[in-house]
Amino acid sequence: MAFLDDDFVMTINDDDEVPDLETLNDESDIEPQTKKRKSDNKSKRTKTGEPNTTDDIAPIAKGFVIDLEADGLDSVSQTLDFTLARASLKRRNNPGLYSSLDDKIAATRRAAKIAKKFAASAQPEVEEKEAEKSEEEDEEDDDKMSVSDEDAQEDVSGSDADSEEIGSEIESDEAEEESGDEEASGDEEETDSDKEQGAQAVAATADEELVDDSEISNSSSESESESEVETGSEGENSDSESEVDEMEEARKRAYFAPQDETTASDIPDSFTLMNLSRPIMKGITKLGFAQPTPIQARTIPVALLGKDVCGGAQTGSGKTAAFLVPKVPATRVLILCPTRELAIQCHNVGSQLAGFTDITTCLCVGGLSLKGQEMELRQRPDIVIATPGRLIDHLRNSQSFHLDQIEILIMDEADRMLEDGFEDELTEIIKACPKKRQTMLFSATMTDNVDKLIRVSLNKPVRVQIDPPKSAAKNLVQEFVRVRSNRDEDRTALLAALCKRHFKKKCIVFFRSKAAAHQMKIIFGLMGLRAAELHGNLSQEGRLQALEQFRDGHVDYLMATDLAARGLDVKGVETVINYTMPNQFPQYLHRVGRTARAGRTGRAITLIGETDRKMLKLAVKHSSKDHIKQRVVPNETLNKYRAKVDDLAPQVKSIVDEEREEKMFKDADMQMTKASNLLNHKTEIQSRPRRTWFQTEKDRNEAKKASKNEYLNKNKKRTKE
Question: Which class would CATH give 147-223+475-654?
Answer without folding.
Answer: alpha beta
